[in-house]
Amino acid sequence: MPEQIPQPNKKIEVIPPYEFRKGTKLSDEEKKALSDYLSGLTVEWKGNAKPREESGRRMFEISRLINNNLLWAKENLGLSLALKKRNISLPKIKFYDPEEFNKMAEAGEFSHDVQGCVITEAGDAVILEQKNERVVLERTNHELIHMLGRIVVDAKKRDGNQINFFIHKIGYTDERKKQFDVFSEAITEMINLESLAYYQKTTGTDYITGCKVGYFVAVIFFDMLIAKLAEKSGLSGQEIRKDLYTGYFTGQFKYLSLFNKHLGEGTLKKIAGLPKYVLGGMGTTESTEFLFKDKFKEAGLDYYEFLDKIERYYAGKEVKLYCGVEVSKNVKPSKI
Ligand SMILES: [Zn+2]
Asked: Distance from the CA of 179 to the center of ligand 1, in angstroms?
């Protein structure tokens, strides 16, 4: 018997492809025209890098992963993400051999430790080719989550009919204020892991065990912070995660204010301001200790439990997150 029986009467919220910042003075027609323009936009990446010719097999698997993310969002969050309107399609996902990928980093498109990236305006994803197919697909799904996240557009009409636009928010990242980058990446990877766990449950294909975790330090930090918030608020961790994931796709959340209420006034401001270098793949470096020690104390978290998890992970052992997903760094041979 299936574990979850579909509920035909469950209300599913349909998410528009692009959201406009409050107060944007455009007519509905102009908003639609701009949305269409953004969906069709392709932006040249700097560095003249040449993508690989991709195998049909890989691309077929990616289309299954796209579908899985939509199913997961529908089943777990009650959201219907407007896939077609945002034009999230296979040609927008490109893979590069290391020397080609490096050309984009050299040209300043992203930093050298990045293994995949989505360009904001066009929503194109570029991904570093790696030996292990499972690792590549785990990374790819992280980028797919970015592509499905909320995009808020700020637009102004100039003289004549010209419209100037600016991508104001993507996921939780505030591009204008340069805030919430770390939180947004951690939430992206948590959604990625939960969606991949759902994929494993429904198809038996495992992209988690030994596939590495993106931004592991930040994921552990927020995983523990959410667990602490659950303990202090009396809500379940699952309920809080569900709310934060919903906010990532819709901008509507009920519980974000709980951070200040239960973990101290100003906590959200600190989360918003976490500097990007936290994402730089460091483990227990001095900067991490400096950065996290204070935050941990203030939030009532166990700093040594955090360090223990980081060390276990880097030693290749399994680490269980509060969301229930078990992760490990040692890459297992590709079997797909
Ligand atoms: Zn990312």
From this structure: 15
Q: How far apart are CA 214 and CA 141, in angstroms?
A: 11
Could you tell me where the beta strands, DSSP code E, fall in the chain? 13-15, 19-20, 79-81, 93-96, 116-118, 125-128, 151-157, 163-170, 173-174, 319-320, 326-327
pLDDT of residue 323: 86
| CA atoms in the 13 A half-sphere facing the CB of 188 | 29
What's the domain range around 305? 208-327
Mark whether 254 and 158 lie in a shared domain.
no
Beta strands in 163-265 (DSSP E): 163-170, 173-174
305 CA to middle of ligand 1, Å?
A: 25
Ligand 1 center to residue 234 CA distance, Å? Answer: 31
| Alpha-carbon gap, residue 62 to 320, rounded angstroms | 26
Nearest-angstrom CA–CA distance, 274 and 92: 30
> Are 220 and 316 in the same domain?
yes
Looking at the structure, do residues 151 and 281 belong to the same domain, yes or no? Answer: no
CA of 188 to the centre of ligand 1 (A): 6
89 occurs within a structural domain? yes
Q: Which residue has the tokens 């908003």?
A: 31
**Is pLDDT of 127 > 80?**
yes
Report if residue 227 sits inside a domain: yes
How far, in Å, from the CA of 146 to the mean position of ligand 1?
7
Mean pLDDT of 318-336: 78
Q: How many domains does the chain divide into?
A: 2
Residue 119 CA to ligand 1 center (angstroms) comes to 11
pLDDT one-digit tens code per residue, 233-267: 999 999 999 999 999 999 998 889 999 999 888 88
